Amino acid sequence: MSVLYVVFRAFSYDLPYLELLCMQTMLQASVCFVPLPGASGAQELGFSMFFSSYFASGDVLYTAVLVWRFFTYYIVVILGALLVVADQIVWPPPSPEGGKLNQPPLRAACLPHTPCAGPAACKGVFVQKY
User: Fold this and answer.
1) Are 121 and 107 spatial neighbours (Cβ–Cβ below 8 Å)?
2) In this predicted structure, what is the pLDDT of residue 40?
3) Does the structure show a pLDDT above 60 at 111?
């Protein structure tokens, strides 16, 4: 919630913190029922409507919307995507055969619940994991 205060300070607008916090809370409450991820579009439109009287020109307002939205939504999406990529690099998904990538599949001497005549008779049988 303090991102809005920092954005206003970055654009040299000095408004009381409590006033900005209340307006931000009203904006969040008014767009929380929009059935889109992150209330996309509604947040930006609401910000423009709520705070247009504070900004001198439309260009400054739209720049403030972009900066505010970047730090409240898009940075989380970007960091999440980077973490997913890093997770896939560090811990790759297992292969369909049950082992890790570039490793031979698991093998056992016999299938479960099957009588075995010795390891030579059941050689090459895959173990199934449930």
Assistant:
1) no
2) 79
3) no
- The helix (H) or strand (E) run that includes residue 51 is helix 42-51
Residues 6+ apart with CB under 8 A from 128: 111
DSSP-derived secondary structure letter, 73: I
Q: CB of 27 within 8 A of CB of 43? A: yes
DSSP string, the chain: -THHHHHHHHTT----HHHHHHHHHHHHHHHTT--SGGGTTHHHHHHHHHHTTTSSSHHHHHHHHHHHHIIIIIHHHHHHHHHHHHHHHHSPPPPTTSS-TTSPPPEESS-TT---S-TTTTTTEEPP--
- Whole-prediction pTM: 0.61
Helix (H) or strand (E) holding 88: helix 75-90
Q: What is the pLDDT of residues 53-86, one digit of tens each?
A: 888 888 888 999 999 999 988 999 999 999 999 9
